Amino acid sequence: MGVTAPPLTALLAMGTFGRPHGVRGELTFWPDDGHPTPAGSPLGWGLVWVETATGLRPLRVDKARSAGDHWLVTLAEIGTREAAAQLTKLRVLVPRSVLPPLAEGEFYVADTVGLEVRDQDDRNLGHVVSTFWNGAQDVAIVKSQNGEETLLPLVDAVVQRVDLVKKLLTVLWEVDESVDEPETGS
Q: Which of 169, 177, 163 has its CA nearest to residue 116?
C-alpha cells in the first residue's frame, strides 16, 4: 500500500479482529468497549492499522455492517478466508483524526494510561498501568507506589475529573487503610 505508519500517539486502539466470516475474506471486528457504534462505523474510519509482529500494517475498510455486539468488515486487501484468518486476534488502531470530536468532560479510556490517580482527599493512589473492558464498563488497573494493583471502574460515579494536561485522574474512592488481623483459633 506504500503508506507510512503514523506515530502511535496519533492512533487509538478500537478493538480486535476476530475470526473470518464466510469464504470471501470478511471478518469479525470486536470493539474494545463492547458497543457496536460509539465511535462510528468502521466504514467511516477508512484506513486502519493492525499491530503485527513486524510492525503496523495499513488496511482499508471497504464494507462494514453491524452484527449485534460486533461488526463484520470487508477489507480492500483481504479477499479470502485464509487471508482474513491471518488477522485474527490482531489489534485494530485508527487515526484519532477520523474519530468524532469529544464533548466536554469526555475522554478516551486509552488516554488514562500513565495518569496519576488521586482520590477526593488528594491522596495518591498510584498510576494507571492499563485498562480493559469487563463486559459492563471500562476498568483501569492502578498500581500503587508499593506495587499493589487496584481495579478502578471508569464510570461517572467514580471518575470526578480527567486532566490530560496535568496527567491526573481524580476519583471518588474509599481507601481501606484497615489491616485485617489474622484470626486466632480458640
A: 169
- Looking at domain 8-98, its CATH class is mainly beta
The kind and range of the H/E element at 11 are strand 11-20
Q: What is the pTM of this model?
A: 0.72
Per-residue pLDDT of the chain (186 residues; tens, 9 = 90+): 578 888 888 898 888 999 999 899 999 998 876 554 445 567 677 889 998 889 899 999 998 888 888 889 999 999 999 999 999 999 999 888 888 788 888 888 889 999 999 999 999 999 999 998 887 888 999 999 999 999 999 999 999 999 999 999 999 988 666 555 455 555
CA distance 129 to 143: 6
Task: Write down the domain spans for the chain.
Answer: 8-98, 109-171
* Cell (9 digits) for 67: 452484527
Strands (E) across 21-156 are located at 27-31, 47-52, 55-66, 71-75, 91-95, 116-119, 124-133, 138-143, 149-153
Domain 109-171 is of which CATH architecture? Roll (2.30)
Length of the chain: 186
Residue type for position 26: E
Q: Give the strand order in the sheet containing 159-163.
A: 149-153, 138-143, 124-133, 116-119, 168-171, 159-163
